[in-house]
């Protein structure tokens, strides 16, 4: 049997495992990110939770075992090397002009409508465009199709026309400003009434505009939006999962996720931190709207800690836990592989597969949210200053939870495969390459079971935050 036929056969077996996992998860409706405050989907588990979680973790473990059977380096390499490229200079120029104009128009629209339009979230086109259009749908486009943000980015368009380059960006700073700013945005999104008060949203948008345009002016637009701007780094990393990639020669189409095996996706420790924030922030947003999360917050507040500090502490503590677990896995990989490659280098190379997990998490959290509120976005955009009294919302069917669970599982399975491919690129020996994967596979199984547990628990409102 040829290597490709063997790979197809094992893919079929793995698909059967996925179907079993979905069957065991019957009756589960994933909890949306109700912390956003626009949608209040909730879920329940119709089977024992331990069986549901064990099955989900078993799928990832089984996928890891089957990928380890694929040791033909030509088969593994073809996944990353097979591309279809085509020059697209004129298309890129026209698309950049069109999307750039659209981006600036959207920014002006959010500010104007947010100030003079309706203030309640479900009636505000500014709020819905920000959360449904940007936070949810645009990110989904970035990892399923390709990253449109470089062309859309309105702040970059503004910054290039301003004097800039007054200072040299310190190399040691890396993308740490983007990491810190993203953590701050996650915290503010929870504590401020951004989804219920359009004017509060406008204040944050204007403050962010001053911050990021100021960074681009002090350094340069090219450097700042590549390293320091959290939204740009967000879309750049999510875009690495997509099949459509931008190159110096134009555009190329690759297998989904194959870009994550390249060594230029994560180039320093600060980007490892950003990847871990992407994974953690979705876990965090799921945790704080479940009963265990609410009880944790209430307990800490009862001890006299202000709720704002509690939520910030949980955000930072969870990130620190993910950071520790990941670097421990990198150290264990170095030991098991018996390699002279440094722990830092291994951490850089094995971080990109986690972006597939983050994409699966994001899909599970936001696909139902997007479908449910898409009609409201259309209704309010059609008449932003005088929207309908009852904007339309879709009610999701009971089986839609299968789609969200599949998103999580497929993201983890893709991460397992990319980890396998990276290990065979790094290590010459087959046994050495397989042994190196074990610590990261354990981490992925842990992430899978945590995320599946959170989407299986009924969602509630986070406490001590604006409604």
How would you describe the overall organization of this protein?
The chain is an all-alpha fold and about 475 residues long. Helix content is about 70%, strand content about 5%. α8 (about 175-190) packs parallel to α12, α9 (about 200-220) packs across α10 and α16 (about 355-380) runs antiparallel to α17 (about 400-425). It is globular and about 65 Å long. The model is unreliable at about 5-10, about 15-35, about 40-50 and about 50-55 (pLDDT under 50).
TL;DR?
Helices cover 68% and strands 3% of the residues. By secondary structure, it is mainly alpha-helical. It has a 3-stranded antiparallel β-sheet with strand order 1-3-2.
Q: What proportion of the residues form beta strands (DSSP E)?
A: under 5%
**CA-atom Rg in angstroms:** 22 Å
Low-confidence stretches: 6-11, 13-35, 42-48, 50-56
Strand order of the largest sheet: 1-3-2
For the biggest sheet, the summary is: 3 strands, antiparallel
Helix content: 55-70%
Q: Pairing-aware structural class of the strands and helices? A: mainly alpha
List the helices and strands in order.
Answer: HHHEHHHHHHHHEEHHHHHHH
Q: Give the N-terminus to C-terminus distance in angstroms.
A: 60 Å
What would the average pLDDT be, to the nearest integer?
81
Number of strands: 3
Looking at the structure, what is the overall shape?
globular
In DSSP terms (H or I, runs of 4 or more residues), the helix count works out at 18
């Amino acid at each position: 049997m040829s290597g490709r036929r063997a790979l197809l056969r094992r893919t079929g077996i793995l698909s059967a495992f996925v179907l079993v996992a979905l069957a065991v998860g019957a009756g589960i409706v994933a909890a949306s990110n109700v912390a956003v405050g626009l949608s209040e989907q909730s879920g329940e588990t119709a089977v024992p939770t331990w069986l549901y979680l064990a099955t989900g973790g078993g799928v990832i473990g089984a996928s890891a075992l089957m990928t380890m059977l694929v040791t033909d380096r030509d088969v593994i390499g073809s996944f990353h090397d097979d591309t279809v490229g085509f020059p697209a200079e004129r298309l890129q120029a026209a698309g950049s002009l069109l999307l750039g104009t659209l981006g600036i128009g959207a920014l002006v629209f959010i500010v104007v409508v947010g100030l003079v339009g309706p203030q309640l979230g479900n009636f505000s086109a500014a709020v819905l465009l920000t959360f449904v259009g940007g936070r949810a749908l645009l990110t989904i486009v970035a990892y399923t199709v390709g990253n449109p943000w470089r062309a859309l980015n309105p702040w970059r368009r503004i910054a290039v026309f301003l004097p800039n380059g007054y200072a040299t960006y310190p190399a040691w700073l890396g993308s740490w400003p983007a990491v810190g700013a993203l953590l701050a945005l996650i915290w503010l999104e929870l504590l401020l009434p951004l989804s219920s008060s359009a004017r509060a949203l406008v204040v944050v948008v204007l403050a962010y505009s001053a911050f990021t345009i100021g960074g681009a002016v002090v350094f340069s637009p090219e450097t700042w939006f590549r390293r320091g701007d959290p939204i740009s780094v967000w879309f750049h990393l999510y875009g690495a999962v997509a099949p459509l990639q931008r190159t110096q020669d134009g555009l190329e189409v690759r297998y989904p996720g194959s870009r994550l095996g390249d060594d230029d996706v994560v180039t320093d420790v600060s980007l490892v931190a950003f990847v871990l924030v992407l994974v953690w922030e979705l876990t965090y947003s799921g945790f704080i709207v479940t009963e265990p999360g609410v009880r944790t917050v209430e307990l800490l507040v009862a001890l006299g800690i202000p709720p704002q500090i509690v939520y910030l502490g949980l955000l930072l503590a969870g990130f620190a836990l993910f950071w520790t677990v990941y670097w421990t896995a990198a150290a264990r990989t170095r030991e098991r592989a018996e390699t002279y490659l440094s722990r830092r280098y291994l951490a850089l190379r094995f971080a990109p597969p986690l972006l597939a997990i983050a994409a699966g998490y994001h899909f599970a959290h936001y696909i139902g949210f997007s479908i449910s509120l898409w009609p409201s976005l259309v209704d309010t955009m059609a008449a932003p200053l005088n929207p309908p009294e009852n904007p339309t919302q879709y009610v999701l069917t009971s089986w839609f939870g299968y789609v969200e669970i599949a998103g999580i599982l497929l993201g983890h399975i893709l991460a397992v495969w990319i980890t396998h491919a990276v290990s065979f690129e790094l290590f010459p020996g087959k046994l050495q390459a397989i042994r190196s994967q074990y610590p990261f596979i354990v981490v992925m199984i842990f992430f899978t079971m945590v995320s599946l547990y959170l989407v299986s628990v009924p969602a509630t409102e986070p406490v001590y935050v604006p409604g």
